[in-house]
Write a structure and sequence with these properties.
Elements (H helix, E strand, L loop, with lengths): L29 H42 L2 E2 L7 E2 L3 H7 L2 H33 L5 H7 L2 H4 L2 H11 L6 H8 L11 H29 L3 H9 L4 H12 L1 H16 L3 H7 L15 H11 L3 H34 L1
Antiparallel strand pairs: 1-2
């Protein structure tokens, strides 16, 4: 029903009605703009935060990886133009005694350094896990070797293992053992290099094990103690199974580190460190790659060695994934 508009008593026209507010299609309110900006902020800000990482990775990680793979298929000399060789660089490695010697040295040094290192780290973590006077000091002290530079640690150990005046040969002489030629002999040299790796990384792995041990529920230890289990039995039956994923992680990381071992053998060998000693007795894959690329100038062969090392690391990572999946299925079953 239509409504009538009454005039004023003086006969003047009634006041005009105030303008109606704009409808949905009118001008957007400030609150709507803020809502839109908020939605864009939620969606875009995470990508803005991660963009610097991906740009850095693309420039210093992905591009060198792809370019190295391209170089491995070419014959490239320093200062020269590349020429296509296909898989010839890889077949040359398969028939090269220097490559197999470096691969074997990498494996043996890795075993000699990794196994004692992780066993000692487990023992140290087990001791620090229980109440011990000065635990805070010892936790900091065992991490000090990790904070020491590779150059400083290797130079000190090179003096300790010196054939003529080293302290190690001096101690061996006290017990009637003839001096050992730590630099020129194959196994003594690898043991000396492994000692450097063990000294630097044992404390680091011990702290990782200690953190994993502290996450084990105390109820398990109390139940084992009520059953009459000794500390050694608790360590074998409770601690080790509980931190098995952490142990697997440290094994894989130590294996990767051993595959990339470079600084310790190069500095330990001195003037012949790049070639891994006078007879290549401790030359690793990393040293061989460096020698091929920057001493002989064969960048194509050096790139092929780099991709072989990448393949080895992928195999190690794949093995870890298979073992982890098997353990999860076993626990789930």
């Amino acid at each position: 029903m239509a409504t009538s508009v009454r005039a004023r008593p003086d006969g003047s026209p009634p006041p005009a009605a105030p303008p109606s507010s704009p409808g949905p299609r009118g001008r957007r309110s400030p609150g709507g703009r803020r809502s839109t900006l908020y939605r864009w902020d939620i969606k875009a800000i995470p990508y803005i935060f991660v963009t610097p990482f991906f740009l850095t990775f693309a420039a210093f990680g992905l591009f060198p990886l792809i370019y190295t793979g391209w170089l491995s298929l070419h014959r490239v000399e320093l200062g020269g133009d590349p020429s296509w060789r296909g898989l010839e660089n890889y077949t040359d490695l398969a028939t090269s005694e220097f490559f197999w010697n470096a691969l074997f040295n990498t494996f043996t040094i890795g075993v000699i350094s990794t196994v004692p290192q992780l066993l000692m780290a487990l023992g140290l973590a087990h001791l620090l896990h229980y109440k011990l006077r000065g635990r805070g000091f010892f936790r900091v002290a065992i991490l000090a070797p990790y904070a020491t530079s590779i150059a400083a640690a290797t130079l000190v150990f090179a003096q300790l293992f010196n054939t003529d005046y080293g302290m190690i040969n001096g101690v061996l002489g006290w017990v009637g053992i003839d001096p050992v030629n730590w630099e020129s002999s194959k196994w003594p040299a690898q043991i000396a290099i492994s000692a450097i790796v063990i000294w630097r990384w044992t404390g680091y792995n011990a702290l990782i094990y200690l953190a994993a041990m502290q996450a084990v529920p105390q109820d398990l230890y109390e139940a084992a103690s009520l059953d009459g289990a000794s500390r050694w039995r608790q360590f074998l039956s409770v601690t080790i199974p509980s931190i098995r994923p952490t142990i697997l992680f440290t094994v894989v990381v130590s294996t990767i580190g051993a595959t990339q071992l470079f600084g310790e053998p190069m500095l330990f060998g001195g003037s012949v460190g790049i070639s891994g000693g006078s007879g290549n007795q401790f030359q690793t894959l990393s040293l061989l790659m460096y020698e091929k690329g920057w001493v002989t100038g064969a960048l194509g062969q050096a790139s092929a060695i780099a991709w072989v090392m990448l393949l080895l690391l992928l195999l190690v990572g794949g093995g870890q994934a298979l073992v982890s999946r098997h353990n999860r299925k076993k626990l789930g079953g």
